[in-house]
């Protein structure tokens, strides 16, 4: 994967993160006013995603995102996500990836 492609992917991920967190915070609110920010947990394996989370937190006083860094792949982050769901304590938002396996000719 080229540097340009990685950069585009990172920008897309950051944009998706902001949109997802904004929607999740709307759904999490009860419609009333509160001095406390909405607390969200976000799991991601993407390198440097902490910078996007920090920028989001700085720009939004009414929402606070806690980043849980996970390992990419089925034996790392996905296993942690699945265990959290089974325990009834999943993250509010999680980033997952999908790699298509090319068909052999």
What does this structure look like?
Helices cover 45% and strands 15% of the residues. It has three helices and three strands, in the order αβαβαβ. α2 (49-59) links the parallel β1 and β2 (63-69). The chain starts with a helix and ends in an 11-residue tail after the last strand.
Could you give a short description of this structure?
The protein is of the alpha/beta class and 105 residues long. The protein has three helices and three strands. The chain has helices spanning 3-28, 49-59, 77-86; strands at residues 38-44, 63-69, 93-94.
Strand order of the largest sheet: 2-1-3
Mean pLDDT: 77
Tell me roughly what share of residues is in helical segments.
40-55%
Number of strands: 3
Please state the overall shape, judged from the principal axes of the Cα atoms.
globular
Distance between the termini: 22 Å
Helical segment tally?
3
**Largest sheet, if any?**
3 strands, parallel
Going by helix content, strand content and strand pairing, the class is alpha/beta
Strand content: 15-25%
Model regions low in confidence, pLDDT < 50 over at least 5 residues:
none
Main features:
105 residues; alpha/beta; 3-stranded parallel β-sheet; 3 helices; 3 strands; 45% helix; Extracellular solute-binding protein; signal; SBP
